[in-house]
Amino acid sequence: MSELHDAIIIGAGPAGLTAGIYLMRAGIETLLLEKALSGGMPVNTERVENYPGFPEGISGRELMDRFAAHAKAFGLPVKEFSEVSAVEYNERMFTVKTTEGEFSAAGVIIAAGTEPVKMGIPGEDELLGRGISYCATCDGMFFRNLDVAVIGGGDSAIEEGLSLAHIVRKVYVVHRRDALRAQKIVQDRAFRNEKMEFLWNKRPVEIGGKGQVEYIMLEDTKTGEHTRVDVSGVFVYVGYRAKTGFLGDLVERDGSGFIVTDENLEAKTKGLYAAGDVRKKTLRQISTAVGDGALAAVNLERYLLEIKP
Fold this sequence. Notes:
The chain is of the alpha/beta class. About 25% of the residues lie in helices and about 30% in strands.
């Protein structure tokens, strides 16, 4: 039999933890499910400087630890390492199937976040974990005093490149264009960092090495010329996509899997809400995830009151 709750939240990032705080304060018995550890993507950010209330900045890990502590202070139960495999809906009840069993509730908030997009080039899968990483904060320590490449030109790529520059000997930033997309303040820091070298108009076409990353082959996007760059590590930041296949036809998605919602953050199935990066929207930040979590929780509370016998 399924364990019964009033509400279930899937994902313990900033959106999910915020939703949990709001629901518990409203007296709604809630369970939060997380496939790994609480905190979500922000825990991989070395420094968060645009979240209000922290003028000196704060590490992503510390900020999310505070989120989790706040949620637990209201008694929110969090089941970590409970990956969701499917969500089913029948007679106004959702059944959430996980690696830790089945759980049921009248309302669900999806705050499952995103996963990195792979480059899809030779060597990427074979050398994953052997020099290829999607998280500099997680794996940077293994490349102390070595040369590495960072792929991408957005905020994540440049912020993680700056983090790596504290540890490694050299950071090659590989970008397919001739200008970065990162915020100007982040760009300025990167351009001032002597350990960071920018390889413009280049795209990776192969990663090679005998059991470990030894080089990356780059193609010039204008001339087609190939260049080999010797590195011990490759950190990939070419985008993110939503992993929402476990929801079946309960939601409408865009081409990248992001959930389409109405202004109340409700998906096409009544009682099912989406919050944070998993939702189709124009800006994905901690502050917008917090707003989503609050709005989804308030609207879920109203929905539960409406269907209450």
